[in-house]
Amino acid sequence: MTEKTYPKVGGRSAKITLVLLVIVYIFNFVDRQILSVLAEDIKADLNITDSDLGFLFGTAFAVFYSIFGIPLGKLADSWSRKNLLSIGLATWSLMTVLSGTAKSFGALSVYRVGVGIGESSASPSSYSILSDYFSPKIRSTILSIYSSGVYLGAGIGLFLGGWIVELWTNAFPDPNLAPLGLKGWQAAFMLVGLPGIVLACFTWRIKEPKRGGSEGIESLQEESSPFKSMLDEFIGISPFIILQDKSPLTALLINVVIASVISLTCYGLYLITNDLIQWLAFGVGIYLLSCWIQGLKNRDPITFGL
């Protein structure tokens, strides 16, 4: 059996991959930030409140981004990182396109959740790929270049969203005469989402670097059952995982106290803001993350100690 060959550390493939990953990060934040510049048009068209927008921009995205980021990060440690990145990119880009078809607050919420889940795969995969593609001597510089995508994407997203809405509205003052009957904000979602799906075809062709190769580590291999490891992390988010603790009654008591504090806090915030969905989703997200931290004590004591 011939030994598998890997691209050279710091070579041509590494530089091409860096450029691609910066572009992916730009798309990541374009799709994430564009909602803010489209907010007023969405409010008027879907008849939603500022609180609803806050849910779309924050909670619907952030809670699921955080929850799915943990198991998807584990998958990036044990499966093909470029495949995970490409699937995530295609997913959040498709969800951005579908956001342009939304006719209700509920539908747009579902698509924003999808954007959050898809984007949660990007950073773990990209950081891991870049760390193996470039030596530790220049890694900080490489990661700084990669991180520039945050600010480029945020700026481009704000500009592009407003520009598309203005052009579309001027070209089609009557939405009924526009292609597919789309309004400006709907066209903006679709036009910024579609290129991401095309970009996913290019990231799929990234050459996977050897794990640990940039530091001369020979023993790092992909796991034989990577999806089982990811599933274990999903199970680790479940509150039932605490029953595996060496002292299950103590763990259960701690969990109940945490759940009570979160519930009372979110209920108080609901009374102040009268925004049930926002604080319910926020509370569930915080509770599940606390369950994951509790379960981590048994699954990975070293990480828990950190």
UniProtKB/TrEMBL annotation:
One Gene Ontology CC term in the entry: membrane
Bilayer-spanning residue ranges: 12-30, 53-72, 142-165, 185-204, 249-270, 276-296
Predominant place of localization: membrane
Topology versus the membrane: Multi-pass membrane protein
Listed InterPro entries: MFS (IPR011701), MFS_dom (IPR020846), MFS_spinster-like (IPR044770), MFS_trans_sf (IPR036259)
Keywords: Membrane, Transmembrane, Transmembrane helix, Transport
GO molecular function: transmembrane transporter activity
Residue stretches making up the Major facilitator superfamily (MFS) profile domain: 17-306
Protein name: Major facilitator superfamily (MFS) profile domain-containing protein
Organism per entry: marine metagenome
